[in-house]
Here is the input.
Amino acid sequence: MINVLEVLETNKMIEQENLDVRTITLGISLIDCIDSDIKELNRKIYEKITKTAKNLVSVGNEIEQMYGIPVVNKRISVTPISLIGASACKTSEDFVRIAETLEKAALEVGVNFIGGYSALVSKGMTFADEKLIRSIPKALSTTSRVCSSVNVGTTKTGINMDAVKLLGEIILETAELTKEVDSLGCAKFVVFCNAPDDNPFMAGAFHGVTEADAIINVGVSGPGVVKKALEEVRGENFEILCETIKKTAFKVTRVGQLVAQEASKRLGIPFGIIDLSLAPTPAIGDSVAEILEEIGLEYAGAPGTTAALALLNDQVKKGGVMASSFVGGLSGAFIPVSEDQRMIDAAKVNAISLEKLEAMTCVCSVGLDMIAIPGSTKATTISGIIADEMAIGMINQKTTAVRLIPVIGKEVGEVAEFGGLLGYAPIMPVNQYSCDAFVNRGGRIPAPIHSFKN
Amino acid sequence: MKKTIITVVGRDTVGIIAKVCTYLADNSINILDISQTIVQDYFNMMMIVDMNQSTKPFQECKSELAKIGEEIGVIVKCQNEDIFNQMHRI
Here is the structure.
């Protein structure tokens, strides 16, 4: 039987160390909504989402009460809209209508984000894909809950450099249209390589075409819990360090598994995966950079950071895999700059740079995330940064992502304020040398040699 | 039906257990086990209870117990036992 110390340990994690279930994300397939009439399509999309997700928020709240653990976000992901709207949307404006419908549906069911305003163009763009991509600045500036992503490369297909080039321009245009709010629109947009079909975390969540009609994916978190556990083993060797992370990750993930099963039962929707990611928030004591410091670094970004992050990521996976029957999504450690207080501090004192962050993305679950750069950065430079990150994902057969925010009107040394969970970020310097001729070549980078596993 | 874990945490005063137990008895909630410990001068009590015969739904008991806790200056929480089983047992 459970003893009082175990109960106290669990409750201490929740109350003092910010253990929570970061998100219950309901993936909904919109494939059965496809129609050649835009009005009819919008009606069907609205109906399907509001019907399927009707009880999502209330069930999330019930679970929170029952187990006494915060379920911070309830969210929805849908089938990439470029597929759903391909038949009905004659123009980019038509796609914006769908974004508005998604916004309305999200508002109706009470979720704070809805993801899937997306296109998968790793080898080529259809006419619909291109129209959707061109509609992203308008869609993200006229809605507040819709999140967008574009997959521009995979290990199997290579990298679509035409799309990479276009997205540099699209990101700048989105920044320009939302410049009144520090280019916040860009915080809702992610460029991926090897995007997973079942990621529950925003802004990159979408419901892949390989998925069932509806599915529950859960993202757990708890950097604070890992940090506290590591305080107990200060000065010990790597074996003990790794063992401690693994055990903690196991405990955290078990809670996610419980919540996912309960949500699945109550909603009558199958359970998909648990995403094991350590996701920070700007709250004190909820930071991944702080774990890196606890491992032994003065600041995230100091020499040793990549190794520390690599072991952290690996132990989180080892502990988590044992705790859940299905893991998926991005699973690892997130290293967003603006959403992590100690990462912000590291950026402020120049302990961390864009280049070091890029190195770190080779060993962690995502990529260059929530990084504010000068608004004067050229579109081709943004494309170049994206291409670098996509190459890391393609060659290493892992997911990588880019969520950059060129903050219009601000330069290095200033601070961009995004508010809430998105936090704030000092503007980081970008390499000033040109990559115009590289980006302007056009075409695609072929798939790497290790993609031929037939 | 799953069991519920009630925890009471706060400064030790006279009658904490009495108040909580009276409430449970009044609502036909059966206590299966009680244990307590003092951690850093704080009174920590855990009860394992069976709410199957309870006259009120879980949610109502949870908020009423929290209110009783407030009145005597302690924090009373009710949680389904599964969260602890999951975390501490393979």
Chain B has a mean pLDDT of 90. DSSP finds three helices and four strands in chain B. Residues 1 and 53 of chain B are 10 Å apart (CA to CA).
